[in-house]
Amino acid sequence: MYSFTPIGVCAQKIIFSISDGVVKDVAFSGGCSGNLQGISRLVDGMQVEEAIVKLRGITCGGKITSCPDQLAKALETGIKKQAG
């Protein structure tokens, strides 16, 4: 299980796991509950690299990032930690 503190978005924390290259158990603290539950369910069971490609670079309003973009960054961090 990984914990990531996003920057520049409403969500305060992203918790997730990666098992055999697959995203599992994504949960956000804070932010827009409905949208973040939707994102969490959509990426559950997805290959980590596919999720990163789909989410990276999404912006929110005038911000240069978004909760999906921060999830991509969290997943990238998780992969690096697994690689050791």
Helix/strand class: alpha+beta
- What do the pLDDT scores average to? 96
Q: What strand order characterises the main sheet?
A: 1-2-3
Radius of gyration: 12 Å
Strand content: 25-35%
Rough shape? globular
Q: Please give the domain count.
A: 1
Largest sheet: 3 strands, antiparallel
Order of helices and strands: EEEHHH
Number of separate helices: 3
- Number of E-type strands: 3
What is the helix content? 40-55%
| Terminal residue distance | 15 Å
User: Low-confidence parts lasting 5 or more residues at pLDDT below 50?
Assistant: none
Pfam family, one: TSCPD
Family: Belongs to the ribonucleoside diphosphate reductase class-2 family.
EC number: 1.17.4.1
InterPro entries: CHP03905 (IPR023806), TSCPD_dom (IPR024434)
